[in-house]
């Protein structure tokens, strides 16, 4: 295990890390006057999709190609999915990796489901610790048979690494990691950080070590949403939904939506850097930390505003009013962001703002 106190830096995590970054940011700023407007957009989205209320507030939006949720291997393939969910985009001017007609996270879901349908036990560490580069390239083959999944060799190495940990310490299944964490979300996030290098998401900012745990939080929230419906996890898995944060970066284009709604504002220097350069931002650079920290803090402010507003009750049934009282706001916001990116008809709006490519394995 990694030593959580392995440096001389003070460590700040999650919300506190985001708050400190937002307060000290130089190139990314939050327009708090637009927070209320954004909260209204999210609530409008919620009301307009009344038939999906339970899903929108309890589970991440998933494509139809998401692997089956009733499988005994659910936790294991969710672990593989989220472990591989990083840097899915090629730099601008290049063709994007596309599978099943989808890019990014949804393309990744499709490719994993396709592999399972083809009889490849992609969830099993006994399989993926021995998988070859050519086999992995075949699993993640693109629609055009030409474009490659970015950083495929790193993904291969990461699968080998995490698989060895599971085989050597956790009986070859991620379920044992959940059990070792005593079905507690915070303990599971800590375990992911300590046991798996690709979840060790930290960087130094203003003489502080900041940890956002973006990928770990996405995985834990997804496991909670799925496994809370199944025994034995149903009565045991602890996720303090009152203190949940938006994970934001299940798709790292989420800041584009905040830019579109003028929640975030970038300095001229950063805008020029993103529009005119073709080099990806590097994990741990000040620019990358500021974008992440300000995005997460802004998301928290939006969630608080939604909590204040709630929904008009005049046209709602008693059942829906009760559901509205219990809605999981951070997951609702994440689904709004993800849905806006992938399902909005006005996709041109996402091309008008500077898009940052990330050179990282952490999200």
From TrEMBL:
A Pfam family per the record: Q_salvage
One biological process term in Gene Ontology: tRNA modification
Domain of life: Eukaryota
GO molecular function: hydrolase activity
Keyword Hydrolase: yes
Alphabetical list of InterPro entries matching this protein: Q_salvage
Class of this enzyme: hydrolase
Reactions catalysed: queuosine 5'-phosphate + H2O = queuine + D-ribose 5-phosphate
EC number(s) on file: 3.2.2.-
Keyword Hydrolase recorded: yes
Its biological purpose: Catalyzes the hydrolysis of queuosine 5'-phosphate, releasing the nucleobase queuine (q). Is required for salvage of queuine from exogenous queuosine (Q) that is imported and then converted to queuosine 5'-phosphate intracellularly.
Similarity comment: Belongs to the QNG1 protein family.
Protein name in the entry: Queuosine 5'-phosphate N-glycosylase/hydrolase
């Amino acid at each position: 295990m990694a030593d959580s106190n392995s440096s001389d830096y003070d460590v700040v995590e999650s919300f506190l890390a985001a708050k400190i970054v937002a307060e000290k940011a130089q190139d990314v700023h939050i327009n708090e006057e637009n927070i209320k407007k954004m909260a209204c957009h999210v609530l409008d989205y919620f009301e307009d999709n009344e038939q999906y209320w339970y899903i929108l507030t309890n589970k991440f939006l998933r494509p139809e190609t998401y692997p089956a949720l009733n499988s005994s291997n659910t936790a294991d393939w969710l672990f593989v999915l989220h472990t591989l969910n990083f840097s899915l985009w090629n730099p601008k001017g290049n063709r994007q990796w596309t599978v099943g007609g989808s890019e990014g996270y949804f393309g990744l879901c499709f490719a994993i489901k396709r592999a399972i349908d083809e009889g490849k036990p992609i969830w099993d560490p006994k399989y993926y610790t021995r998988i070859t580069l050519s086999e992995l390239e075949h699993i993640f083959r693109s629609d055009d048979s030409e474009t490659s999944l970015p950083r495929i060799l790193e993904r291969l190495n990461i699968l080998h690494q995490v698989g060895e940990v599971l085989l050597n310490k956790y009986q070859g299944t991620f379920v044992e990691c959940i059990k070792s964490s005593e079905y507690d979300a915070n303990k599971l996030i800590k375990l992911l950080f300590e046991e798996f290098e690709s979840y060790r998401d930290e960087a130094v900012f203003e003489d502080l070590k900041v940890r956002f745990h973006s990928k770990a939080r996405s995985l834990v929230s997804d496991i909670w949403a799925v496994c809370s419906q199944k025994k034995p996890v149903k009565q045991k898995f602890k996720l303090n939904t009152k203190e949940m944060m938006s994970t934001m970066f299940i798709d790292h284009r989420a800041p584009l939506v905040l830019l579109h709604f003028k929640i975030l504002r970038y300095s001229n220097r950063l805008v020029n850097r993103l529009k005119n350069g073709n080099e990806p931002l590097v994990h741990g650079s000040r620019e990358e930390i500021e974008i992440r920290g300000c995005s997460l803090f802004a998301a928290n402010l939006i969630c608080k505003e939604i909590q204040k507003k709630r929904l008009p009750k005049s046209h709602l049934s008693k059942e829906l009013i009760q559901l509205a009282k219990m809605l999981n706001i951070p997951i609702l916001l994440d689904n709004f962001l993800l849905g806006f990116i992938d399902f909005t008809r006005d996709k041109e709006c996402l091309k008008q703002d500077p898009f940052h490519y990330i050179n990282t394995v952490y999200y």
